[in-house]
Request: fold
Amino acid sequence: MLEFPEDFVWGVSSSAYQIEGAAAEDGRTPSVWDTASARPGFIADGQTGAVACDSYHRVDEDADLIAGLGVSASRFSISWSRVLPDGTAGRVNKAGLDYYDRVVDGLLARGVTPWVTLFHWDYPQVLQDLGGWLHADSPRWFADYAEVVVDRLGDRVRHWMTLNEPQCFIGFGHVKGEHAPGLRLSRREALLVLHRALLGHGLAVRVLRAHADGHRVGWAPVGVTAYPATESAEDIEAARRFMFEQCGDDWTFSNTLYADPVVFGRYPGLDYGDVISDLPEPGPGDLETISTPIDFYGVNIYTGTCVRAGEDGEPVEVPLGPGHPRTAMDWPVTPPALYWGPRLLAERYGLPVYITENGCATTDWVGLDGAVRDPGRVDYLDRHLREVARAIRDGVDIRGYFQWSILDNFEWAFGYTRRFGLVHVDFENGTRTPKDSYRWYRGVVSSGRVGG
Ligand code: IFM
Reply:
């Protein structure tokens, strides 16, 4: 039996475009995801987030489901274009802010603390038309948006995350063209996007901090997670190097390119790889802004890579065995990623860690008897939470865990074909049905224990 600390934060996670719907209601203007969804072939089954889980119209029902889990926290994001229809801070949409008031108040009334992500990929289309994150003013636009949000919600919201998974909106959205805005920029341009997004992060941290004392500000990156094949010092060092030194084939999923400037105020050195030569020359004060201190390191971890030390000590990827378990996303099930990921991140960055997302897609549906049985998800969560508990027992400063996701929702380019929820959503009519995993997670939250 493994126990979690009394004050451990238990939560669930979601994001605006994935659940809200009401895409053209009450003054909201399109985000890049509305535009991309309209492109033939961009989203599975030609779907869009126009209705999604219809959470915009189901504030109380969803808050009841969240509170029914017994969790102390709910992480959700704000739709920038619902709050600022022109993207910039001139015209503020009262109806949009009223909606987030209802969400926040609904959670607080039920004893659940709101944790707000400012940017979870749904960039205002009107700003994208001006160049998006490539525009020199884009960091300021983001900070102004942060100001509007904190002005309205900051009397009740104390926990903030600036950017969700910059690795994804830059990698999939600006390099591979698989996510909105669907661009395939050169590496040099994509690294400028990265720099400007990080500047936006730093400016937003300052805005949030300036608003009032006591705000806890972090971010929620993703990145490569490695775990050692054995607990030998050599394999652990190989995993450490795989996570932090190697760029690998895909720089967009790096940890250090994003996190070193945020935490240390410097980009990795030239020994990191030739990608570094494409980074923009930081302007005066840029790195100080980017590295404005944050209070916690949120991290989204779903899977990891097993690594060992080769003959020469260099990290070598260990292939998975035949038939290794995979989720419906085809992501390998690798529970030690949730021990080693937070451990190595906490060791490098010296910040308290929150697991801001973890969970899995499984193929579940409503049975003839009305129940939704998702044993794969229960097993996945069980295995991963045991690793979190083990890490805490070994002294890793992990303060909380947010399961992704409370509801089945719009899984980006996969549309509605991948279900991550503790609660099943019938996308034809919005009906919510708690799954077996919902009851299982509730048990874990109430006992503060896993295993045995
Ligand atoms: O649904 C996404 C979420 O928006 C960001 N992190 C990963 C999840 C599962 O793919």
The chain has one domain: 2-446. The longest helix spans residues 187-211. The chain is about 35% helix and 15% strand.
